[in-house]
Amino acid sequence: MISSNFWQKRIDKLSESLGAKNPTYDKWKREVLDNWVKHSKSTKSLPVNESKVVYSAEDSAISQGDLPGEYPFTRGIYPNMYRGRLWTMRMFAGYGTPEDTNRRLKYLLKHGETGLSIAFDEPTLYGIDCNDERAVGEVGRCGVNVTTLKDMEVLFDGIPLDSVSTSMTINAPAIILFAMYIAVAKKQKVPVSALAGTVQADILKEYIAQKEWLYPPEAHLRMIRDMVVFSTKKMPRWNYISVSGYHIREAGATAAQELAFTLADGFHYIDLGMEAGLKVDEFAPRMSFFFDSSINMFEEIAKFRAARRIWANVLKEKYKARDPHSLKLRFHTQTSGYTLTWQQPLNNIIRTTTEALSAVLGGTQSLHTNSYDEALALPTEEAAKIALRTQQIIAYETGAAEVADPLGGSYYLENLTSRIELEAYEYFDKIEKLGGMLNAVKEGYPQKEIANSAYERQQRLEGGEDVMVGVNAYREENEKPINILRIDRKPEFVQKKRLGTVMSRRNQKKVNHALNRLRSAMNNERTNLVPYIMDAVVAYATLGEIANVGKEIYGEWKEPKIL
Amino acid sequence: MKNRGSEIADIVNGIKKSRRESIARAITLAENEETLFPDVIKRIYRKNMQTRVIGITGAPGCGKSSLISFIGPKLMAAGHRVAIIAVDASSPFTGGSFLGNRIRMQESLEKSGIFMRSMSSRGSRGGLSMSITNAIIVLSSAGFDRIIIEPVGSGQSDTDIMDITSTIVVVLSPGFGDEIQAAKAGLMELADIFVMNKTDMPDVDRAERDFRYYLSTVPPDKMVHEIIKTNAISGEGTDELVRSIENHEKGVDQTAFYKKIFETEVLRIAKDMVAVELEEIARAKSEWIKRLSTSGLDPYSAADKLLNQINNQS
Amino acid sequence: MENGKSLKFYKKPIRVLLAKPAIDGHDRGIYILARAFRDAGMEVIYPGLLPTPESIVNTAIDEDVDVIAISLLNGAHMAVFHKLMTLLKKRKVKGIAVVGGGIIPDEDKAKLEKIGVSGNYGPGTPLSVIIEHIKKRAEEARSEK
Questions:
Q1: N or C: which end of chain C has fewer CB within 10 A?
Q2: Binding partners of C (≥3 Cβ pairs within 8 A)
Q3: Lowest-confidence range among B24-28, B267-271, C31-35, C138-142?
Q4: CA-based nearest distance A445→chain B, Å
Q5: How many Å apart are CA A494 and CA B226, to the nearest integer?
Q6: Model pLDDT for residues B176-229, shown as the tens digit of each residue
Q7: Interchain CB distance below 8 Å, C43 and B99
Q8: What pLDDT is stored for residue C58 in this prediction?
Q9: Within a domain: C135
């Protein structure tokens, strides 16, 4: 338990320096700015969120003169950042059948992406089989469908798992797909220790924002613990979790809320690993993060920098981590889906570009750029390619990758970084007073904060204080329709057929045996479930069959009152 | 132009056959105080209905809805026909409301087929309007013999629930300081059964101890009280709770109960309406009242003046 | 007497069932709509995530709503809205209007209107437009009841 002074000390220090007087600015304001404003025009309808017109040296007096690659890593986790290692161009992809997605993955690899990122359909995300009646109309629609190990094998057909790193965006049934990935590797004769990648697995953010859970929190947290322990012992290149802020932001949180709730979740997972008996330096280095990159450039860059600084500070001072790798916050970024518009879709290319640039200037390790048609549907091949090219142009043409933290030292940026850092500490303090993140989630605290922010944003849009070009400004009547990706019902038929074949060929006794053993293992809190789930997966038990074992034991969970 | 007669007949027949659309329609008529409703009531009301009404109250977040999602089906399993009325507060500014009690109960409702109706307080001071009493009558006439009411849960104003329920369960949750709030709000005397929910939280024992202490401050001639510990996530303790409710119900005189509903309800609603109308007058006279408050008069003289004004109005 | 918050104020608010019949947890829009409808004086019934078309229809009947407002973001609107309308017809439900919203391509809107789902508003539609439409459909529904 931290002393309640821990956050308060930081809050006080930051408040003090941010509140310091700025006589230079005050003098300039009196003598130059106010006069100017009196006699000149002011731009109509420019959204203004900052109270100051310009930032100067005194505003960033708090800048710590950091350098990249050393504590507290504000300016980047590697000394030479992208000169040593460019960010991974990792395009989120997945739709239809495993064959469809396999083709798309190969297409993207051919065109230069450097890491895989798999999107699953809703049934898969919810641990529901493709032949379940709730899956009707949803199979393959917003991601690839995976119901058994066979689907996974097809998905990675022709893609050697020791030659790629794979990120799987899966949460509630993450442990099942994790097991499937390992099983595919085994079939490919790739040793488990060579596997590089991540499963998202971050269940806390599900309760907070994305709302795709199966069981009550304790059950999911136990499974995360099992994955942490398993991969810490056997998989040196595997990130067992991707603590996510993206979904929190997309659900309506502000940048500060995204930062605070994500890191608070991260702290909770550190607690989880330590309660499981691991030393912090054993597993903290392999914790990874996933942030949003939204349209306000400087706020986002400040957010990324503050995230690194906070994480390093807390891991060092609170958790007593010693290994520098434990202090380095590594993150993947996705440009914001919410900021894309269905009106005048080509405009989205510009939005994605600035958001990607913000992520690069903010020092991301991995990046997904949205396609321009994603406000309407999953991306077409053409649109996904442009999104990938966006990253390549930024990397190789703009010079943004050449120098580490090129905006470091900017008066505005340093001031903003500290401001958002302060806001985050205030949230951490609040959350601790609520008894920690898990309690806060059960009471609905972050959910309510997010719903309020979302509502306020909607009000500002409708009132015109916030602008979205094409939506509440510069609208066009009679938009020309664009070509979009249409997913038909074919994947449903293909998947059901394949499932039928798998079930008829598998050894039912083996499946039952594995599921029974899994059931007993689940009832023993101290058992690591990964090997038991592997046995079930390898016997070709279905996703639903495995997920249902948990349902029987753990029951379900309903969210608290938010409105 | 709708045919009034046939519409009433449709609804009445539907209620007798326990058709859900008709029951639902009748409740809407009751809520909107439409002119059709008295005709409907006259035709469906029966004496000596064996309905028991169970009120489950407690602070927001204490787990009422989750408990009801267990209790409902268990009462059904014991052979009763169960209905649930969940009340949420109406916004005094817009008149609208967010009726979210189904969130925690939807699955249980689908599985069990229990009828649930979400109602809003619609300006009633006590949080329970006359329409809820009417809804109870509709449901009784349709054959539901156990009706669970989940009121708004703001604590103090839940005392209205006493007038229409045969059994009152007060749910407390350790760690919220509910125990003390309950003591303050007068819920101690109100409750027939106390429930301490979320037994997996570590401080439930301490909370129970504290609570028994407060209980001891209530005079012994006021009934009660067992404290039942429950876990609204696993359902632990809910069998005991149901048994406790059934035991309590055995001690309730049914005919007296219905008599009480009508007598007390009429009086309460009348008083309620008078209070609201007075407030309306005060609002209409707000300028005048403002002058009054700055006039330097003491409160009692000011009140006299206001009353005179009102008497002169009507 | 001026028009104020008498008990009359609370009479006959529009009852709306807000639902997202998909296996999908994204509810940012749902909570914004719920709040906006409530602030417009409506009674909003929200049964939580993952409702099936059957449970939506059952809930709509038991709660005697005027309007069912359904939102879908996953492209499955044709199948789902169709199923909903079929169920409503089968139960011979009168006096409940169905309004749609979400990510719905223009070509599909006409088809949806034909089966009785109106509105079909996409993201960026001002809340006031949606609310006006719901009020209009609620009036129509009530005259059918």
A1: N
A2: A, B
A3: B267-271
A4: 12
A5: 59
A6: 565 566 666 666 677 888 888 875 555 666 667 777 766 666 666 555 567 888
A7: yes
A8: 95
A9: no
Q: Which residue of A has its CA nearest to C25?
A: A211
Answer yes or no: are the C-beta atoms of A10 and A425 closer than 8 Å: yes
Nearest to C122 among A210, A342, A462 (CB): A342
Within a domain: residue C44?
Answer: yes
Say whether C64 and B25 touch across the interface (CB within 8 A): yes
Q: Higher-confidence residue: A387 or B154?
A: A387
Question: How close is the nearest chain C Cα to the Cα of B24, in Å?
Answer: 5
Question: Mapping DSSP to helix (H, G, I), strand (E, B) and coil, where does residue C69 land?
Answer: strand
C136 within some domain: no
Q: Is the pLDDT of residue A403 over 70?
A: yes
Asked if A555's CB is within 8 angstroms of B234's CB, the reply is yes
Nearest CA in chain B to A215: B233
What is the value of ipTM here, to two decimals?
Answer: 0.89
Tens of pLDDT, residue by residue over B238-291, are 999 999 999 888 877 766 666 666 666 667 667 767 877 777 777 777 777 777
Question: Is B20 touching C (CB cutoff 8 A)?
Answer: yes
Residues C125-145 have a mean pLDDT of 92
Instruction: Indicate yes or no: CB of B60 within 8 angstroms of CB of A556.
Output: no
* Of C22, C32, C79, Cβ closest to residue A458: C32
Please compute the mean of the pLDDT values over residues A376-396 and round it to a whole number.
93
Q: How far is C125 from chain A (nearest CA, A)?
A: 8
Domain segments of chain A as ranges: 81-400+409-463
pLDDT for residue A304: 98
Query: Cis omega (within 30 of 0) on the bond before C77?
Result: no
| Residue C70 structural domain | 15-129
Q: Which two tokens stand for residue B215?
A: 């209980």
Contact check, Cβ <8 Å, C62/B117:
yes
Residue with tokens 């321009």: A372
Structure confidence at residue A64 as a pLDDT band (50, 70, 90): low
- The answer to whether A79 and A68 have CB atoms below 8 angstroms apart is yes
Q: Which of B69, B87, B233 to mutate to test the interface with A (most CBs of A within 10 A)?
A: B233
Q: Please give the tally of structural domains in chain C.
A: 1
pTM of the model: 0.85
Q: Is a pLDDT exceeding 60 seen at residue A373?
A: yes
Lowest mean pLDDT among A150-164, B98-112, C5-19: C5-19
Q: Decide if B25 and C55 are in contact by the 8 Å CB cutoff.
A: no
Cα–Cα distance for residue pair A77/A67, rounded to 1 Å? 9
Residue C82 lies in a domain: yes
Tokens, residue A188: 């490919």
CA-to-CA dists, residue A70 to A44, A85, A305, C40, angstroms: 44, 17, 13, 54
We find that the CATH architecture of domain A81-400+409-463 is: Alpha-Beta Barrel (3.20)
User: Can you list the pairs that A102-106 forms with residues at least 24 positions away whose Cβ atoms lie under 8 Å?
Assistant: A102/A154, A102/A155, A102/A156, A102/A157, A102/A158, A102/A159, A104/A381, A104/A384, A105/A155, A105/A159, A106/A158, A106/A159
CA distance B115 to chain C (A): 7
**Residue C80 belongs to a domain with what CATH number?**
3.40.50.280
Which residue in A113, A193, A201, A125 sits closest to A159, CA to CA? A113
Between CA B87 and CA A298 the distance in angstroms is: 46
Name the token pair of B246: 């059934």
| Residue whose structure tokens are 């990122």 | A117
Residue C7 confidence (pLDDT): 47
Interface of C with A in 36-75 (CB under 8 A): 36, 38, 46, 48-50, 52, 74-75
pLDDT of residue A134: 87
Closest partner CB to B96 (pick from C38, C48, C54): C38
Condensed to tens digits (0 to 9), the pLDDT of residues A264-286 reads: 999 999 999 999 999 999 999 99
Give the residue from chain A lying closest to C72, CA to CA: A138
